[in-house]
Amino acid sequence: MKINLIKAKTILQKTGLPDCDWVVNPYTGCRFGCKYCYAAFVGRFTHPKEEWGSYVDVKINAAELLKIEISGKKGIILFSSVTDPYQGLEAKYQLTRKCLQVLADVRYKGEVGILTKSGLVTSDIDIFKEIKNIHVGMTVTSTGDPISQYLETYATPNRDRLKALKKLHQAGIKTYAFVGPLLPHFVWQEKEMKQLLTELKQTGVSYIYLEHLNLSKYIRDRLYRFLKKDYSQELARFKQAQSPEYRRQLDKLLAKLIKQVGLKVAYGRAIYHKDKQSWQAMGPRRI
What we know:
- By secondary structure, this protein is of the alpha/beta class.
- The protein is built from 13 helices and 10 strands.
- It has a single domain (2-280), classed as pyruvate-formate lyase- activating enzyme (Alpha-Beta Horseshoe).
- It has helices spanning 43-46, 62-69, 90-93, 95-105, 125-128, 146-151, 158-170, 184-187, 190-203, 217-230, 235-240, 244-261, 276-280; strands spanning 2-6, 12-14, 22-24, 27-28, 55-59, 77-79, 112-116, 134-139, 174-179, 207-210.
- Strand 7 (112-116), helix 5 and strand 8 (134-139) form a beta-alpha-beta unit.
- Helix 2 (62-69) packs parallel to helix 4 (95-105), helix 7 runs parallel beside helix 9 and helix 9 packs across helix 12 (244-261).
């Protein structure tokens, strides 16, 4: 993997995401390089000839910029939107930790959100406790079957993500889970899907997100390229995820399972990237 140390021009960026007002991406690129990742499009502009997951730009001045840019700001800040703030390089460079320390030092009054696939997140429990209103989330897409492991090759194993969520909850940190994207090879296995939701409930999460698979052209082309190479037998099932009828039937199944398990779901149902206006209108995600 290629690592580039860079100085960013800005770190606190306004966002159009419905769940937050600002995003902080301490890194550009992500070593996890998940094969369905929507953020892979970032590389078209910064690393046009490099595969997503093969490079990471380390914004070494992230904390210094945040000290300046946080002045007068309010609202919800998310770490991160197009990278994983706790990918392995965080252990060395600690950019996420340094940025969070800035927010703790200024006693930031807004909300702070974390979303990661890395068990490394538990190393910052001490700083999480210094921030008044923080929610720490873990993306968990399956119980760890071989295809899911293939699609998320370099991310923390799902079992360890569940352990991390439980550890955060036991430390008094408010937690949530992001079950997305809903992977077509997994979601129709009702027993396994219920098991995943049950195990998330047992970690103590306050709520979960559900998200349908984003198959925009750039994501679709990249994902299908990998599936054709190593899991061609699953390609037809993934292609079905583009169908509105597929999503309707999946929503029905998920509604049943969520009721059985007793979980709370942000927005009340699975979100879909092309239906942005409607899920903004569903009401607040906080339960």
